[in-house]
Amino acid sequence: MASIVPVILSGGMGTRLWPVSRSDRPKQFGRLVGEATLLQQTALRLELLDARDPIVVCNAAHGETVQRQLAGVGVTPRAVLLEPEGRNTAPAVAAAAYFLREHGDAEQVLLILPADHIILDRPAFAEAVQVAAAAALDGYLATFGIVPDHAETGYGYLKRGTGEGGVFAVERFVEKPDLATAERYVASGEYLWNSGMFAFTVNVFLEELERLQPVMARRVGEAVSAARARQAFLELDAAAFSGCPSDSIDYAVMEQTRRAVLVPLDAGWSDMGSWSAVAALQSPDRAGNTTRGDVLLHDCRNSHFHSSGRLVAGIGVQDHIVVETPDAVLVVHRDHAQDVKGLVDRLGQMGRVELRRSAADDDDAC
């Protein structure tokens, strides 16, 4: 079997986890759950796989942070590809694929992993990866479908078709549904959450990308060919990359190809996409509260409190999320956790400095 080359996508901004996640230091570099950062946990997850050192694709401003955090857990990336600007996941994956093809590794299996996911059951994850890698070597583009444990409106869904050996056809890609629709999906047993993780060979992915998205493929190929090496980094050519269409790998390739398959994954997965997701990964007290940091509560129920430094005290709070950082405090009802992104958009329109990195933050904060 060809070896697996992990590709860690570290370009997201994590807007729904503001004010801990900032544009200058997004959530993947923070310790939201556990003692390691999300990026570090993603890299350590590879220990059970027959995988090479990862390729990391990230914003040019984050390269040194990536290198420093991976070194902190004993991981040396094969390459760190620096994007001059974010163009979504399809160009990021394409950059890694063209990089490998230029280095004679076109038959390798790429394992695409966002840097901000949590997976609690590593053996189950490793087993699913081997199933997906085998499908990739058979010429398929595999996506991982998360077996849902509740009706979630914050994720897209995959409708599972026929299959065998743990590999199924993707009958349908579905956008984020409303609650009633999500409940029907989960009750049917036919739908899985769309994880945003993939496995395919370099050659098969690039064949489909060049067929379906020729402009994107050409621009990314040019950006890799003209890339400039700087210390441990490879800076993608800005002129070529800026002319690349911005699109997700789902829209650009997976929803259009006839080679898509899905591998179910039941491994305690979360994309850490909201404060509700963060709270769900922590053990609640008898009143349903979860906390991180210096927190003191009295008569509170079903709430999440996060302190980045100062004491946060709550009295009589119910069904809310409270997040403290040195320069901003977020208070939001749990039912509106997904709406934090809209608030962050407003901060950007207002030119507020709180959108970026807090002056009191450091690389190990959160």
Task: Provide an overview of this structure.
- With 366 residues, the protein is an alpha/beta fold.
- The strands form 4 sheets. A 5-stranded mixed β-barrel has the order 6-9-7-8-12.
- Strand 18 and strand 19 form a beta hairpin.
- Helix 3 packs across helix 6, helix 3 crosses helix 7 and helix 6 crosses helix 7.
- The relative contact order is 0.16.
Quickly describe the structure.
With 366 residues, the chain is α/β, with parallel strands linked by helices. It has eleven helices and 19 strands.
Q: Give the mean pLDDT.
A: 93
Give the spatial strand order of the biggest sheet. Answer: 6-9-7-8-12
Shape: globular
Q: Which structural category fits the helices and strands? A: alpha/beta
Largest pleated sheet: 5 strands, mixed, barrel
Note the gap between the termini.
40 Å
Q: What percentage of the residues does DSSP assign to strands (E)? A: 25-35%
Order of helices and strands: EHEHEHEEHEEEHEHHEEHHEEHEEEEEEH
Number of helices: 11
Uncertain residue ranges: none
Our Rg estimate from Cα atoms comes to: 20 Å
Question: Helix amount, in percent?
Answer: 25-40%
Please provide the count of β strands.
Answer: 19
Layout of secondary structure:
Blueprint: E1 4-10, H1 38-44, E2 55-59, H2 63-71, E3 79-83, H3 89-102, E4 109-114, E5 118-119, H4 122-137, E6 141-146, E7 157-164, E8 167-174, H5 179-188, E9 191-201, H6 202-212, H7 214-225, E10 228-230, E11 233-235, H8 238-242, H9 249-254, E12 260-265, E13 269-270, H10 275-280, E14 290-292, E15 295-298, E16 304-307, E17 312-315, E18 320-325, E19 328-333, H11 340-350
Parallel strand pairs: 1-2, 1-4, 2-3, 3-11, 6-12, 14-16, 15-17, 16-18
Antiparallel strand pairs: 4-9, 5-13, 6-9, 7-8, 7-9, 8-12, 10-11, 18-19
